[in-house]
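The data are quoted verbatim for reference:
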Amino acid sequence: MPQNKSAKPWFLYIIQCANGHFYTGITTDVARRFAEHQASGAKAAKYLKGKGPLLLVYQESLPCRSSATKREIFIKKLSRDKKHSLIAKGE
């Protein structure tokens, strides 16, 4: 199936919780998604509820949902130290 060239890019993002743990996710709108997580409403990730304040520490753009999902899986498998290195390089 041909891809639509005007399609929105996907983003991978990493959020750091108050306890220092990382949460990794994907979205087409990082600002909206981060606001949902911070609000702890129905659309927030259950993992993040009650773990604030939250800090958006990393994001990267990817061309499609498939590549964003593959990148998310890869990053979730990284050690804590490697995630710290990724975040430091991205800033």
Summary: Helices lie at 30-39, 65-76, 80-90. The chain has three helices and three strands.
